[in-house]
Design goal:
This protein is α/β, with parallel strands linked by helices. It has 6 helices and 11 strands. A 9-stranded mixed β-sheet has the order 9-8-7-10-6-1-4-5-11, with helices on both faces. Helix 3 packs across helix 4. It is globular.
Length: 263
């Protein structure tokens, strides 16, 4: 079983002071010196990868657990942590441009890596950062021809069967999944990565990140952000005067059928 976990290291925006939020002529905020962090969804995905590998190995499966990230900066510190926690290989693929607004390009690069490494199960965070599109996992599954399941909050591997739980509104959906799937991890409780011990770190000190050739996304490096405006979230509403829920429901049906005028 080959498990591939896709994650992204992003800037810790809460660590920026008000003076740091100064846009340049291209409307970009300089985040080069901002602290780096894992998003909560990606951290859950990485934690699930470790659990899934542990469960599968306990069942006698031969497992390779791989983590991959795209970006401009090599997150070597994070890779060392993942190696110490039990990942077999950590891959960094440099890209020239920010993929925040181009999930199709991110998915295309990840699909190539997943195909090359023969991934059976792919885990991603639901979104990588504020403003994330949530489209990467569905696009990745479409490119690979694999089913995609979102909102994953728990998973296990028992007797050769992958079982997952997903949140849907106020309900929890439980499913038994095929061995080939893309899993998008959502709000999963108690899934923070543990801190590796010094002994665990020393045991993998000779492991290095696998660095792939830089990917050049056609046309993306020529795109320039011209402006940003807030989304208009204003709404119009009408107050219905009614003495009971039944009367209110009857008025609503009347408005919908055109039998009554809106107040």
């Amino acid at each position: 079983m080959n498990i591939l976990v896709c994650f992204k290291i992003t800037a810790d925006l809460e660590a920026l002071s008000q003076e740091d939020w100064v846009a340049d002529s291209d409307l970009q905020v300089d985040l080069r010196f901002a602290p780096q962090e894992l998003g909560c969804f990606d951290e859950s995905a990485l934690s699930f990868g470790l659990k899934l590998a542990e469960d599968a190995r306990a069942e006698g499966e031969i497992v390779k657990l791989t983590a991959v990230t795209l970006g401009r900066r090599n997150p070597s510190r994070w890779m060392k942590t993942l190696y110490a926690l039990g990942y077999d290989e950590c891959i960094f693929c440099p890209v020239q441009c920010d993929s925040l607004f181009s999930p199709e390009n991110t998915a295309n690069i990840l699909a190539g890596i997943a195909t090359e490494y023969g991934a059976d199960i792919i885990l991603t965070g639901e979104r990588s950062s504020p403003g994330g599109s949530t489209f990467t996992a569905p696009l990745l599954s479409e490119m690979l021809g694999m089913p995609c399941y979102g909102g994953i909050s728990a998973l296990s591997y028992q007797a050769g069967v992958l079982k997952v739980e997903a949140l849907s509104g106020d309900s929890i959906i439980k499913r038994v999944l095929p061995s080939l799937a893309v899993l998008s991890v959502g709000n999963a409780p108690s899934t923070r990565l543990k801190i590796p011990t010094l002994k665990e770190k020393m045991a993998v000190s000779n492991k290095n990140t696998t660095i792939l050739p830089e990917k050049v996304v056609p046309g993306e490096q020529d795109k320039i952000l011209l402006s940003m405006t807030a989304v208009d979230r204003s709404r119009t509403c009408s107050k219905i005067a009614a003495d009971s829920p039944r009367e209110a429901a009857e008025k609503i049906v009347g408005y919908m059928l055109g039998l009554e005028d809106m107040p």
